[in-house]
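Data deposition worksheet. Section B asks for the primary sequence of the deposited chain exactly as it was used as input, without tags or linkers unless they were present during the calculation. Section C holds the resulting structure in token form. Section D is free text for depositor observations; keep each observation to a single sentence. Incomplete worksheets are returned to the depositor.
Section A, Depositor: J.P.
Section B:
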Amino acid sequence: MAIIREMFKKNKKRYMTVPSEAAKDVPEGLMTKCPECKSIVLTKDLMKCDKVCPDCGHHYKMTAYERVDCLFDEDTFIPMDEGMKTVNPLGFPSYEEKVNADAEKTGLNEAVLTGIGEIDGQRIAVAIMDSHFRMGSMGSVVGEKITRAIEKATEEGVPFIIFTASGGARMQEGVLSLMQMAKTSVALSRHADRGLLFISVMTHPTTGGVSASFASVGDINLAEPKALIGFAGRRVIEQTVREKLPEDFQTAEFLMEHGQLDAVVHRSEMKKTLSTLIRFHTKEAR
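Section C:
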């Protein structure tokens, strides 16, 4: 045994790799490792694929601005209410500092980007949630911006589309956050009363109060592949029902199978799909 241990030590030393000077010079962020298939791809090539792994199709999270770039016709998107920002209504400790840090990191003032733009020449209003900002949590400003975007769509008589990505209601704003569920839903109801289209596109993750309100009440509900969609977490549900849930529970595919989605759409097909749906549901098409 002593001989074997000595051989192991020698071989371990022989095959230990020391990073070369060239390896140390590789710029950070040049390569990206897929969390699903573990393949490594050049970050610039990943961006060309709209942040979808070319090997396994894993959909990375997108920023709001990245979503705009791959969705709207060039130079047609006009943002709304960019200056709106929370003022810490409940005086929650360190809340403003965290919001300011996320604003600096993302270039957004809140967890949703709203505006007007065109998809294949068709004018729409849109709200795009960004999970890089406070995990896309829904506070009073998020709800207000989404409501104003819906009202703009209603006023102009155009479809409204929302891309959801959220951990749910923002705990630092308490009941003021929960009130946004009702406010946005009322605005959507008025939009529907005008006979106007609302498409909800759920991306990873869409959970909590967001999934229980505007995310789930679209005339057409879509989702990206393998997106996590649900209200409570898996552990909470399993402890409540005292049953083991399926492995794919709360994925887009599971919801599609159980009739809670109209389609699961690959990101590369999203613009084409939305364009077709808008064309089918506008007065001009009829």
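Section D:
The longest strand covers residues 198-207.
The chain has two domains: 18-60, 61-280.
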